Amino acid sequence: MGRGYIVQDDVEGYLSKLCEQKADPVTGLLIGQSSTQRDYVVMAIRTPQKEESAAAARNSVDKEWVTEHARQVSRMLPGGLSVVGVFIITDADAKDALTTLRQVRVMLTLSSSGLKAWAHQIESGLCLIDGKRLPEDSELTVGQRRNVRQTYTAQLLITTVRDENKRLTDVIQQCGGSVSVTGAIHSRAYLHSNKPKARLAEKLLKRDVVSTVATRVQMMLEELLASDQESKGKLFCLPHRIFCPLKVSGPLCVCDYQFSDEGLSEVTERLKEMLDIDAAEEDLDTRQETTFEITGCDITPGGHRDMHACVLCPDCPPFCCLGVAMATAVALLATAASMLYLNDI
Amino acid sequence: VVVDSEIATVLRVKGLLEFRCQLDSTDGQLVRNVISRTFETLRSQVKSESCVLAVSDSPVIIWPNKDAYATPEEITPSTLCEDMHQWIHVINLCLMTEVTKPGPLSAPILTKTVLKSHFVNVTLPLDCVVCTGRSNTIKEYQLIEALTHQLCEMEKVTLQNMKGMTLLVPEPVHFLLPEPKGLVTVVYPVGVPDSQLVAQRKELHEQFELPDDRPYFRRANAYHFPNEPYKDGYLRNPHLALTHPTLDNGKVYLVQGIYSYHHYMQDRVDDNGWGCAYRSLQTICSWFQQQGYVERPVPTHKEIQQALVDVGDKQASFVGSRQWIGSIEVQAVLGHLLGLTSKILFVSQGAELASKGRELANHFLTEGTPVMIGGGVLAHTILGVAWSETTGQIRYLILDPHYTGAEDLQVITDKGWCGWKGPDFWDQTAYYNLCLPQRPKVI
To answer: Is the ipTM of this structure higher than 0.85?
Structure first.
C-alpha cells in the first residue's frame, strides 16, 4: 500500500521529462511536507551524476550516493520542506524497484553535543506568531480566504533550563581553548495551507533555526579540521544563507550557503547540480543575511561580546556549546492553495 | 504566616541566567576583573530590549525595557495592572530572553581560541520579589532595578567566596521580617551551612534592628510563598483558619512561627490508640526545624523510641513497641535529639489547669513554642490560650493528634481537630504534665 501524495503540476512535468531520458534506472528525491493524512510534494530532483561512475554502474542504483545526495539536499531546504520520498524510473520489475527504494534511508543528526544544549533551549522556547501567543491547536489561517499567500512573523523567547545533572563542582573546568558562535541567522519555514496548526508552525520554525546553525557550524568545523591552523585567536565567518525561489512567481524558496570567499556563480552551480534548478544570479535573494564586518576594535581576545564560550578539550573531538543565534527574522509562508485540491494523483 | 494586607501585590520574578566566562590567567585580580565584567554583561542583558517577563499562568508577556506587551485582546496595557491585582496575591513572572529581531543582521561568526584556560559555567538562580502598593505601570514596580540589584549582590557574594579557582553559586533567599520591614532578600552562597554564616547574620540583624536572641535569617526561616504547596504534604498552621474567641478583657496568646500538623496514621504508621504523644512531639520538632533552630528532620516513632533507649530511659525492647510516652519522655527526646531544654509544669487535677492562664500566656509571649500536654490517657498539643486577667476566663487552642483522616483543612477545623476548647475539655480529676519547650537564644 502506498501513501497518498498531492503533487504539483510541474513535478509531474519534470518526472515526465526524466522518463524520456535514455538512462535506466533514474532515481531522485521527492521534496515536500508530510502531514498525518498525506504528503505534499513540491519538487522532484534527479540524483546527480557521479563523475567517477563506470558505465556499468550507471545501470544500477547507487544507494549510498542517493543517500548522500539526500543528505546534502536536506541542508538546502528551509523549514517545512524535507525529503519526503525517493523515486525511481525504470523498466525493471516494480517489486525490485520498491525494494531498492526502501533501502535508501536519510537521517539528519545533530552531531555536536554542545549544540544540543542550545538546540534544547530553542525547542523548549516560547513562540509568538505575529506578536501573539497562540493556543497550540489553533489554526493559523482562521478567517483568511483560501488561495491567499500569508506571511507571519515569529518571535522566539527562551529560558535557561536547569541542568539537573550538573554537579556543583563542575562550575570551573580546565580547557584547552574554546569555540564560540555568535551572530544572527535568518530562519524560515513553509506550511501547507490545509488548516495548518500553530503547533506545526512552531515546530517547523524551531527545527529550521537549529538546523541552519548546525549545518553551518558543521560545514565550518569540517573546514577547520581539514586546514589545521595553529593561530591563537581566529575569526571565521560562517557561510551565510541565500534563498532562491523554486519558480519565479512562486513563494517557495530553497536555500544555499555562501562562504565569504565564494561568488554567486558558485551558488548557482550548486543549485543546478544538487537541486537541478536553473537559477540566474539576479534571482537569488541575498538580502536576508549580510556579511559580518570585522573592524579592529570589535573582538577582544577572551572578550565578552555576546560571548557564549565553548569548551574544546585537547583530547576530545571538538564540540560546540551554545552558539545562540542573537536574532532571526522569520517569515512563515503558507504554500499556494493550488497544491491542495488536485483530485487526480 | 500572612503577608501584610497593606501590601496590594507581591511580584516575584524568577529565572535562570547563564554565567559564562573564560579565565586566561589564574592571577587573582585578573580573575576578579573577568568575573565582574561578566556580571556587568548579565546586568546589561537584563536591561536590554531582549529581556522579557512572562506572567505565569497567563497569556501576558511583557517587554519591560520597551514598554511593550503581548496580551490577548481583552486586556489592554492600562487595565493590565488592575487586572493583575485582582487575580492573585502573589504574581509570578518568568525571566526570558527574546532571541529574535527584525532583520537583516550580521551573519554568524565562529571564534576559535587555542589557549590553556579555565572555563566558568554557572547557572545563576535569579529570584526577586517586589512588594508595593497599587501602581499603574509595570515600570513603577521596578522589576528590572530589582534584578540588576540582585546581580550586584550576587557579584559581591561570588567574589567574597572565591578561593583560588573554586567558585560558589550565589543563591537568593527571601525572609519575611516583622512589620514594617516586610519581605527582604538575602543572597547566600550555596553549600555553606548556617553555622558558617553567623557573621553575615549578625550584620543583617544589626542592619534591620532585629533582636539578637532569635533567628530570622537561617535558611529554614525562608518565607514560604502562599501559592507554593509544601512538598511534604503536611498542613501548616491550621489554627490560622479559625476565629479566635473574644473574652471580656481577654487577650489571645498564640504560638509564634510555623509548625506542621502531625497526627495518627500519617507516614504509613498505624499508631491509632497509642501514638498521640509521639505525634505531639513531632509537631514540636517540626516547629524547631521550621524556625531554623535545628536542621534535623522530624523524627519517626522508631527514632523517638531509640532516643529514649539511648538516654537510658527505656529498655532496648522498647523500640518497635506500641508503648505510650508522656511529657517527661518528650522532654528527654527534645533534649537528646534536638539539644533543647524544656520546662515541665505539673497539675495534680485537671481542674487546676483553669488557673494556669498567666503561665501559659507568658510562655506563648516569650517562647512561643507549641506545648505538649499529657494526662489521663490522652496527649494533646496546646497552641495558645485566650485568657482574661480580670475574669479568669480561659480557653485553650488545641491541636488534636488523634485525628486519623486526610490533610483536609476544612474537616480539621470544622470538626474541631484543631480548635478552641474550654476548661471542661480536661479530665477534672486526672493529673497532667505539660512540656514547655524553651527557645534557644541564638541567631
So the answer is: no
Half-sphere CA count of B271, side-chain side, radius 13 A: 27
Q: In chain B, where are the structural domains located? A: 8-71+86-98+117-221, 238-437
Residues of A within 8 A of B114 (CB-CB) are 176-177, 230-232, 312
Q: Is A175 close to B119, i.e. CB distance below 8 A?
A: yes
Residue A310 lies in a domain: no
A-chain residue closest to B69, CA distance: A131
**Residues A8 and A104 placed together within one structural domain of the fold:** yes
Select from A108, A132, A153 the last residue of a domain: A108
Co-location of A21 and A99 in the same domain: yes
Alpha-carbon dihedral sign for residues A334, A335, A337, A341: negative
**Any catalytic annotation for residue B276?**
yes
Specify the long-range contacts of residues B286-289, CB closer than 8 Å, at least 24 apart: B286/B234, B286/B259, B286/B260, B286/B262, B287/B255, B287/B257, B287/B258, B287/B259, B287/B369, B287/B370, B287/B437, B288/B338, B288/B340, B288/B369, B288/B437, B289/B220
Q: Which of A328, A15, A339 is nearest to A154 (CA)?
A: A328
Q: Which residue in B16, B22, B105 is closest to A309 by CB distance?
A: B22
Q: How many angstroms away from the CA of B100 is the closest CA of chain A?
A: 4
Chain B interface, mutation test: which of A123, A172, A289, most B Cβ atoms within 10 Å?
A172
Query: Could B115 and A240 be called an inter-chain contact, meaning their C-beta atoms sit closer than 8 Å?
Result: no
Do both A120 and A65 map to the same domain?
Answer: no
Residues A98 and A131 in one domain: no
A329 at B interface, C-beta within 8 A: yes
Residues A122, A103 share a domain: no
Region at B144 (left for phi over 0; alpha for psi -120 to 50; beta for the rest): alpha
User: Domain of A44?
Assistant: 4-108
Q: Which fold has domain B238-437?
A: Cathepsin B; Chain A (3.90.70)
Together in a domain, A135 and A91: no
CB A263 within 8 A of CB A198: no
Question: What is the distance in angstroms between the Cα of A314 and the nearest Cα belonging to chain B?
Answer: 9
Per the residue annotation, which of B118, B336, B402, B408 is the catalytic one? B402
The C-alpha cell that represents B277 in the structure block: 504523644
Domain count, chain A: 3
Let me know if residue A71 belongs to a domain: yes
Which of B39, B99, B161 to substitute to test the interface with A, most A CBs within 10 Å? B99
Co-location of A24 and A99 in the same domain: yes
Q: Please give the model's pTM, rounded to 2 decimal places.
A: 0.77
Residues of B whose CB is below 8 A from A158 = 96-97, 99
B402 labelled catalytic: yes
Q: Do B15 and A159 touch (CB under 8 A)?
A: yes
Radius of gyration for the alpha carbons in chain B, expressed in angstroms and rounded: 27
User: Are B430 and B401 contacting, i.e. CB atoms less than 8 angstroms apart?
Assistant: no
For chain B, 443 residues long, give each residue's pLDDT as a single digit of tens: 344 444 457 889 999 998 988 888 888 899 999 999 999 999 999 999 889 999 888 888 889 888 777 776 555 544 455 544 444 467 889 999 988 877 666 778 877 777 788 888 889 999 999 876 665 566 666 889 999 999 999 999 999 988 878 888 999 999 989 877 888 999 999 989 999 999 999 999 999 999 999 999 999 999 888 777 788 889 999 999 999 999 989 999 999 999 999 999 999 999 999 999 999 999 999 999 999 999 899 999 999 999 999 999 999 999 999 999 999 999 999 999 999 999 999 999 999 999 999 999 999 999 999 999 999 789 999 999 999 999 999 999 999 999 999 999 999 999 999 999 999 999 999 999 999 999 999 88
Same domain, A123 and A142: yes
Contact call for residues B245 and B422 (beta carbons, < 8 A): no
Does the residue A312 lie in any domain? no
Residue A72 C-alpha, separation from nearest chain B C-alpha, in angstroms: 21
Q: Is A165 on the interface with B (CB under 8 A)?
A: no
Amino acid at B357: G
Q: Is there a domain that residue A282 lies in?
A: yes
For the domain that residue A67 is a member of, what is the CATH number? 3.40.140.10
Q: How far is A166 from chain B (nearest CA, A)?
A: 10
Counting one residue from chain A and one from chain B, the pairs whose CB atoms sit within 8 A come to 220
